[in-house]
Structure to design on (667 residues):
């Protein structure tokens, strides 16, 4: 399967567009977070600059760029500057493996004197084999920027914050891995696309040799893995260092953690990393437990038939299908990002020993239990 | 063509960061260099189509073991070392030449032994998922004894590490 | 979905020599450095070199056994790092440094 020049160009462009999408989502999320928190706390929030306060983002960007470039005197300069750059990488790399929609089929066509195609363009940065393993491998590197920021600042509060944050991330990665094991046993694959395909149609499964169908429920992972979903969601909050697990950056109580010494644009880069992590974990939750880009009670064939009336057959049909699915994915994504924000402004913060107890003494045993029960049920279903 | 370029780039990255591990006097930079080298090796596994092993390499080595190293070094607050290397010119020369000699020995014997195994015999895998399934089947049938032995070893190591590193009288007591 | 082979021009020897180079660099670190933690890291480097050759052999001979061994090597490397770092912590508490010559004072 050799790529020709046009396909290579389109793929390269796709990488840039997906990276840009992730970066551009961050200011919108910041705005959503500020307006959302204001809504929850019965305040106004930023509403002066532009319609609904949307131009506040632009003003913030100008402010970030114009801030003083501050470097702590005794800090390690190299590590201090390296940390915010590395903080953006795990999110940006992991987003590449996420399938946003169905592929677009383009039949062969003539252009500039030669025939091109046929092409199958995936709405996905790259179809990486064993996508879920890749996403976990890349996001396990997210600990380094925190440690480097804490060390590079040469500030004991920063260092303590960094050690707190990395211990928290390593602890919760374990329970998260166990939650994912349940998902892998259910689907029997590591490919995100195959997982989504399996969630088509109404809920149906084989049990003790009989086929069971629930026509009023979609065939989503959450109905097979409710406990796994809960564990995964809680762990993804802890991994993203969000409330109720935001001890690394508890401003008033513990000094701001690893980014105490950071300001201006470097701080913004840490924010991009954090929101990138939120986007990736929300997407993974959607793919594992909520059918990915699929629309409940509407199979792909039905959707294609519905759309044929508007756009006809061929490339336009696959493009329209892909766009509808992309819209469905984005709606689900926004809902989950809103849940992230909602939880942040509703729940109080854990104490550090409570957090560690929750991770090691509650989440881990429940994760093991989930794995065993899933194994047993899958064995019974196939046996 | 591109794959050859990619291979030599990766090889350069891995070897340069590996040299960084042994030559940089500051332990924190050593640990970071080792992390870079692990990531490079993971990419090499990826190019060898061993996707699962590559992912595990990232998660276990770069994501857990190296973070442990970095955390311990930061906890000790180790500075640039005055005596990073062993002393004595003669011993240094001997050690360098010993390492180079062993490398030359291994490399020459390898290139004589496995010259017939080249890429023409290489068969592409049917699918990555299939090879993962084969791998797990092998792990739980042919290598089941080794697997169990490793699990016992890990439990022993957990207990041993905790009892070694624990401060007397609970986790929050001072070590005085 | 058949995978496209990305390693058409590189022979097994390339990987094996890379593996040997990693092993020897690691060995050089073990005999050269004085810091116990850096010595542990050099041992990790040696183990990684061995892993590279296992994976390469496994790939070029179309078996899965090499990958299984790689998992065992990784488990043992993690165990070794845990115990080694625990020992380093104990030494650091006693002598306030982790020079390898501090171990000379250990007597039974």
């Amino acid at each position: 399967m050799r790529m020709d020049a046009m396909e290579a160009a389109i793929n390269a462009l796709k990488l840039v567009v997906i990276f840009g999408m992730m970066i551009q989502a961050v200011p919108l999320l910041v705005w959503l977070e500020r307006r959302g928190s204001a809504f929850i706390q019965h305040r106004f929030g930023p509403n002066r600059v532009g319609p609904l306060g949307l131009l506040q983002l632009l003003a913030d960007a100008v402010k970030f760029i114009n801030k003083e470039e501050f470097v702590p005197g005794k800090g390690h300069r190299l590590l201090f500057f390296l940390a915010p750059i590395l903080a953006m990488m795990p999110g940006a790399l992991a987003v590449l493996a996420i399938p946003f929609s169905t592929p677009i089929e383009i039949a062969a066509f003539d252009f500039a004197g030669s025939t091109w195609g046929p092409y199958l363009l995936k709405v996905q940065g790259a179809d990486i084999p064993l996508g879920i393993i890749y996403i976990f491998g890349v996001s396990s590197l997210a600990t380094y920027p925190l440690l480097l920021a804490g060390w590079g600042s040469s500030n004991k509060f920063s260092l303590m914050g960094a050690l707190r944050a990395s211990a928290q991330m390593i602890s919760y990665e374990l329970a998260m891995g166990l939650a994912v094991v349940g998902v892998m046993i259910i689907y029997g694959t590591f490919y995100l696309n195959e997982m989504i395909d399996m969630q088509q149609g109404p809920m149906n499964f084989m049990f003790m040799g009989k086929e069971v169908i629930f026509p009023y429920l979609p065939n989503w992972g959450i109905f097979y893995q409710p406990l796994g979903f809960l564990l995964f969601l809680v762990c993804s909050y802890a991994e993203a260092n969000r409330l109720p697990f935001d001890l690394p950056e508890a401003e008033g109580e513990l000094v701001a953690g690893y980014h105490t010494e950071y300001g201006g644009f470097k701080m913004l880069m840490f924010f991009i990393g954090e929101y990138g992590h939120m986007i990736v974990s929300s997407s993974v939750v959607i793919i594992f437990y909520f059918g990915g880009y699929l629309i409940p009670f509407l199979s792909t064939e039905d959707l294609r038939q519905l759309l044929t009336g508007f756009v006809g057959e061929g490339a336009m049909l696959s493009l329209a299908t892909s766009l509808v699915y992309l819209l469905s994915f984005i709606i689900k994504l926004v809902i989950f990002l809103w849940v992230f924000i909602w939880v942040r402004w509703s729940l109080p913060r854990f104490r550090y020993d409570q957090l560690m107890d929750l991770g090691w003494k509650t989440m881990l045993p429940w994760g093991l239990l989930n794995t065993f029960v899933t194994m047993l049920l899958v064995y019974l279903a196939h046996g | 063509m591109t794959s050859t370029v990619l291979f030599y780039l990766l090889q350069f990255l891995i070897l340069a960061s590996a040299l960084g591990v042994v030559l940089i006097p500051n332990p924190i930079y050593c640990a970071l260099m080792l992390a870079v080298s692990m990531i490079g090796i993971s990419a090499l596994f990826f190019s060898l189509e061993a996707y699962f092993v590559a992912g595990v390499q990232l998660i276990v080595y770069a994501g857990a073991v190296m973070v442990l190293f970095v955390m311990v070094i930061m906890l000790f607050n180790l500075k640039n070392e005055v005596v990073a290397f062993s002393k004595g010119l003669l011993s240094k020369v001997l050690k360098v030449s010993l390492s180079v000699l062993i490398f030359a020995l291994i490399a020459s014997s390898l290139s004589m032994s496995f010259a017939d195994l080249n890429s023409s015999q290489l068969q592409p895998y049917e699918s990555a998922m299939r090879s993962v399934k084969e791998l797990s089947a092998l792990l739980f049938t042919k290598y089941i004894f080794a697997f169990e032995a490793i699990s016992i070893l890990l439990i022993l190591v957990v207990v041993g590490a905790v009892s070694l590193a624990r401060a007397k009288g609970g986790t929050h007591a001072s070590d005085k | 979905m058949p995978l496209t082979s990305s390693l058409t021009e590189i022979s097994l020897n390339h990987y094996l020599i890379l593996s040997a180079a990693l092993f020897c660099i690691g060995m050089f670190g073990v005999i050269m450095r004085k810091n116990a933690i850096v010595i542990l890291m050099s041992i990790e480097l040696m183990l990684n070199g061995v892993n590279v050759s296992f994976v390469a052999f496994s790939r070029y001979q179309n078996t899965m056994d090499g990958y299984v061994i790689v998992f065992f090597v990784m488990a043992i490397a993690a165990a070794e790092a845990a115990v080694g770092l625990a020992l380093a912590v104990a030494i650091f508490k006693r002598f306030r440094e982790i020079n390898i010559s501090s171990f000379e004072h250990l007597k039974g």
About this structure: Residues 51 and 128 of chain B are 7 Å apart (CA to CA).
